[in-house]
Amino acid sequence: MFAEYAAMHKKAIDYTVITGIPSDIILVRAQDMMEVLNQEELDMFKKECRNYPSDEELRKKYYSQKKWDHMRLGIIRRSIETNVSKGNAKDK
Fold it and tell me: For the chain (length 92 residues), average pLDDT per consecutive 10?
């Protein structure tokens, strides 16, 4: 489901939707959806729908994750090297 946040808040979506696989796209007007949902369902839907992060936010999260992954692997590598060298020292 795309653009539910924008529909619920009556604003335009800030992104373009691109699919990597063949998809069936079904358009439902927000007004039609409001008529089908009862108040409890509508309240739950509004509570659960989230806005997608901006491209800039996604890039920041991506690079932050890449930086963490690189640092984590470095820590693991150094830990292994330290333990191996300690093991070699005990063998002598």
Answer: 69 75 82 84 81 83 95 94 76 58
